[in-house]
Amino acid sequence: MTGRCGWCREPRNDLVAVGFHPATSAGGVSVYACAGCVAARQLLPLAEHPVETDGTPRIRPSTTTTTRTGQ
């Protein structure tokens, strides 16, 4: 799919759906990001969103745990 990334606004052909904005008249609009922005911003592809979510773009859950030491 060729279009513009919703984050960097560059025309791209590697877009991934990362969210959905509902609209009352037309059903809604999908939000897309290029592969680079998906990786850099840790965006969760829409296909991986939990079923109960409303489609709002989400950040991938962290897989690392940060702890403070020496305090």
Keywords:
71 residues; two-stranded antiparallel sheet; 1 helix; 4 strands; 24% strand; flat
Across the major sheet, the strand order is 1-2
Main beta-sheet annotation:
2 strands, antiparallel
By DSSP (H or I, 4+ residues per run), the number of helices equals: 1
Average predicted local confidence, pLDDT: 85
| Helical fraction | under 10%
Terminal Cα separation, in Å?
Answer: 51 Å
Multimerization status: single chain
* Poorly predicted sequence stretches spanning 5 or more consecutive residues: none
Overall geometry comes to flat
Write the element-wise H/E pattern from the N-terminal end onward. Answer: EEEEH
Q: Rg to the nearest angstrom?
A: 15 Å
Q: Which band does the percent of strand residues land in?
A: 15-25%
**Count the strands?**
4
Task: Provide the structure class.
Answer: mainly beta
